[in-house]
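Batch manifest, entry 17 of 40.
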Amino acid sequence: MIAQRALAVISAILLVAAVAIATFGPESVTLGQGLYLLDHDVLDKLPDWSTRNLGIWVWTSVIQPLLLRPAWLVPASAGIVCIGLSMSLSYRKTTHRSHRRS
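Output type: structure tokens
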């Protein structure tokens, strides 16, 4: 029950952030450009760190394509995943207590 509510709150925060980025951010800004606007050094350190710790295939197959996507897409996708997890936790069978009449 707590995990379901936490995931629902996280999904709401992520979806509001995605709408805010899409609405108030520069038009068609990519995730890489958004990260560069926040911190100039992150894109210089990210390729070395990812290839050293995760492997070259993670950089070329996962991280680079993500950096080319719109900045609002990543929080929106994570929010949708959290909504799905929250909904799947809400449909779990609960134990029903019997209410006997006296």
